[in-house]
Design goal:
5 helices
Length: 153
């Protein structure tokens, strides 16, 4: 990946046209750089907030999304939404993030979807998921080099 980034950066610096796949790759690097410019951590970043997804199973139970079915039901077709349960889910999740992620070096690069932390009806830290997200930090050096070369602004 580093070699590809170096070649694409070299082409960009020389003013050469990028192939569509190279351009897509470079756009992803630019998006990553934008994420790193944030100065505040959103505890619910990249989570479904009950407003953009809803999964209804065959028995009529409401779930946060299709990935979270059966783990954290939030109501059903007979009784409607369980707003207290929804509040508890948000509180439990934000407390997990607040107590574990505020000082993490990958906190602005993390896609904190509920499913990565859902275990046995509660939220728990997922060391494997966190290790993978922290690998992005290794790419920071490349991004800084792109800024220094004037490729990113």
């Amino acid at each position: 990946m580093d070699d590809i980034l170096d070649r694409v950066t070299d082409k960009k610096l020389k003013g050469k046209n990028l192939y569509p796949i190279e351009d897509d790759f470079f756009v992803k690097v630019i998006d990553l750089a934008k994420q790193l410019k944030r100065d505040q951590l959103s505890l619910l970043a990249n989570t479904c907030m009950f407003d953009n997804r809803l999964y209804i199973d065959a028995y009529g139970a409401f779930h946060i999304c299709e990935k979270m079915n059966e783990k954290f039901p939030i109501g059903d077709i007979h009784n409607g939404f369980n707003y207290s349960r929804m509040q508890d889910i948000i509180y439990e999740f934000t407390e997990l993030i607040r107590s574990n992620c505020l000082d993490c070096e990958a906190r602005f690069l993390c896609t904190r979807c509920y499913i990565h932390f859902a275990r046995n009806g509660k939220f728990e830290m997922n060391d494997s998921f966190c290790r993978k997200k922290k690998q992005y930090i290794n790419k920071l050096e490349k991004i800084i080099q792109l800024y220094e070369k004037g490729v990113l602004k």
